Amino acid sequence: MSELLSYDEALERFDPALGLEVHVELNTASKMFCGCPTEFGAEPNTQTCPTCLGLPGSMPVVNEIAVESAIRIGLALNCEIAEWCRFARKNYFYPDMPKNFQTSQYDEPIAFNGWTDVVVEGPEGPQTVRVDIERAHMEEDTGKSLHVGGATGRIHGADYSLVDYNRAGIPLIEIVTRPILGTREIVPLVAKAYVAQLRDLLLGLGVSDVRMEQGSLRCDVNLSLAPRDDGSESDNTGRHSLGTRTETKNVNSLRSVERAVRYEVQRHAAVLTSGRPILQETRHWHEDTGITTSGREKSDAEDYRYFPEPDLVPVAPDKEWVERLRASLPEPPHERRARLQAEWGFSDLDMRDTVGAGALGLVEATIAAGATPQAARKWWLGELARRANETETDISALGVTPAHVARVQALVDEGAINDKLARQVFDGLVAGEGTPDEIVAARGLAIVSDEGALSAAVDNAIAANPDVADKIRDGKVAAAGALIGAVMKEMKGQADAARVRELVLEKLT
Amino acid sequence: MPETPSISREELAHLATLARIDLSDAELDHLAPQLSVILESVASISDVADDDIPPTSHALPLTNVFRADVVVPGLTAEEALSGAPEQEGQRFKVPRILGDEQ
Questions:
Q1: Does A48 touch chain B (CB under 8 A)?
Q2: Which Gene Ontology terms cover its molecular function (chain A) (predicted)?
Q3: Of A151, A217, A271, A468, which one has the fewest beta carbons inside 10 Å?
């Protein structure tokens, strides 16, 4: 494990510069350059054709919807759209691309010069940080390699590799920020907030499933440190001299983005403080241990020998097309947040917690599925955010959907279960036991509405607690709580507490 | 006249590394001048292409050639793997890979 400097000390000495590269798999039906399907989880090598296998004589043709999605993403990030651009071959020899090159874009990205504003909780309250977007370009995803042998399943030490080309050729958009400077101690939060916002924005556009746990949104974290400016003059100009950066690949959850940035700040600071140089390299993020380890030395762009793809013609979106796509955009994130807060009647604090938990879209979808804003907030920010924290999982990856939450609340409203039983339903949902109704049935969670059984339980409780019963007979109604508790215990929580109270009072007063 | 392109022995050695081709010293000495001659021959196109001929990556002046986002049946796994020297678990089996994913 690398040596680390404490986070506070790292920031006393250095200014971090952050850059994020996000790869988004589009949710088109077919691949970028051929008609193969793009479904996740198919049997290996069942979604290929001569084009995506790079067989001789095959010719690529661009997927029109993928281009439209790329333009819409660019517009949603306030980018300019290229009037004319080309694809390029990125040449490298690695079996995840059977063609020995990846079809990408190089110096002519379809979208460039954009920005998006993210809001994070700074030391002095909410703070808006503008993230400048350098470019968003079109490319294709690579195949998936399985490394066999060796201790870790990673490349190093593997005896051989097995490749599945189902993913090769799925449309991918790479979104690259400019260096984000001057955010100091909140830099990990900015990274997380940016990726969360991008996820929500892409969901809103409907261009990707953005399932980080399935790899349809993947994040590379670039980080460097520069000695801290002592003059305040250059602090706001952005004209910092940047230190050597490292690129941490495949940081694939919101929580990991925050942790990886924090870790690299501390690691860089320790290396630099000891007088050693930072190597320009890619690093691997280890989700389980929360550390990064050295990968390969970063190739120079010229090593990829990019050249324009001769098998594809240029893409030249005319103004009318771009404007039509612009008109199809959903509202921008900050406007959406303001509108939802007003619609839901959330306090600033509620809203901040919702956005901070990465649950804005989840709460919105839960309300759309029929729950009240209060109920949606209660379950997502109370019960589910707690579970996500405890299990160190992204809240969207718990296995609980907005439709589930709405149904659980409906069951509570119908009186079929109470809040305590609802928590057990969430246990079942997280464990993958089926729908809320199936879990209620399978676990026998429904509230007992059999009056005979309830009445008998109340009688038992009175018999077992004669002192309490006497108090209630004497008019001390507040003592009823002890009897209600005893009844609920006997009923294993599966009773309506309000009805139990009525029965207790009926029998004793 | 454009600058005469040539490729140095060091550049060739670097290219060979990138291409995973193992070249001996004798081969580097032999191939570097040959590649330079090939580059020079291709560069002679610049002599006839004047400013009125823009550089192009495609023979036809076309743009926006697209396909609809429609799934077309491709190969079965058996067909896809039929050219693979080795396979295992319905996947292409390849030698231990040095280097890294992209």
A1: yes
A2: ATP binding; glutaminyl-tRNA synthase (glutamine-hydrolyzing) activity
A3: A151
* A451-508, CATH topology level: Arc Repressor Mutant, subunit A (1.10.10)
Pair A158, B97: CB distance under 8 Å: yes
Contacts of B77 (CB under 8 A, 6+ apart): A43, A44, A45, A46, B90
Residue A304's identity, in one-letter code, is Y
Within 8 A of A60 by CB-CB distance, chain B residues are none
Q: Is A345 exposed, middle or buried (0-12, 13-18, 19+ CB in 10 A)?
A: exposed
Q: Within an 8 Å CB–CB cutoff, is residue B22 touching chain A?
A: no
Do B100 and A93 contact (CB within 8 A), yes or no? no
CB A35 within 8 A of CB B72: yes
Query: If you write DSSP's letter for every residue of A336-352 in order, what string do you get?
Result: HHHHHHHHHT--HHHHH
**Residue A118's pLDDT is what?**
92
In A125-154, the residues whose Cβ lies within 8 Å of chain B are: 142, 145-149
| Dist. CA A110–CA A72, nearest whole Å | 11
Identify the three-state secondary structure at position A436. Answer: helix
Q: Which long-range contacts (CB under 8 A, 24 or more apart) does A326-335 make?
A: A326/A75, A328/A72, A329/A72, A329/A75, A329/A76, A329/A205, A330/A76, A330/A204, A330/A205, A332/A76, A333/A116, A333/A117, A333/A197, A333/A200, A333/A201, A333/A204, A334/A117, A334/A119
Report how far residue A240's alpha carbon sits from residue A224's, in angstroms, rounded to the nearest whole number.
11
Q: Per DSSP, what are the bridge partners of residue A130?
A: A117
- In whole angstroms, give the CA distance from residue B35 to residue B30: 9
User: Of A146, A159, A282, which has the smallest distance from its Cβ to B100's Cβ?
Assistant: A282
Q: Which two tokens stand for residue A238?
A: 């952005």
Domain boundaries, chain A: 7-325, 331-443, 451-508
**Between the CA of residue A378 and those of A116, A179, A353, A435, what are the distances in Å?**
30, 38, 11, 20
Amino acid A141: pLDDT: 97
Put simply, the answer to whether A86 touches B57 (Cβ < 8 Å) is yes
Q: Which residues constitute the domain of residue B23?
A: 1-50
| Optimal mutation site among A52, A53, A298, interface B, most CBs of chain B within 10 A | A53
For residue B55, give the H/E element and its range. Answer: none
- Give Dmax over CA atoms of chain A in angstroms: 95
- Interchain contact B21–A (C-beta under 8 A): no
What is the CB neighbour count within 10 angstroms for residue A279? 12
pLDDT of residue A235: 47
d(CA A221, CA A263): 11
- CATH number of residue B11's parent domain: 1.10.20.60
By mean pLDDT, which of A210-219, A224-233, A372-381 is the weakest?
A: A224-233
**Closest listed residue to residue A30, CA positions, set A65, A58, A59:** A65
For the residues A94-111, what does the mean pLDDT come to? Answer: 94
pLDDT for A266: 97
Q: How many CB pairs under 8 A join A and B?
A: 153
Q: Please indicate whether, in this complex, the C-beta atoms of B100 and A295 are within 8 angstroms of each other.
A: yes
Question: How many folded domains does chain B comprise?
Answer: 1
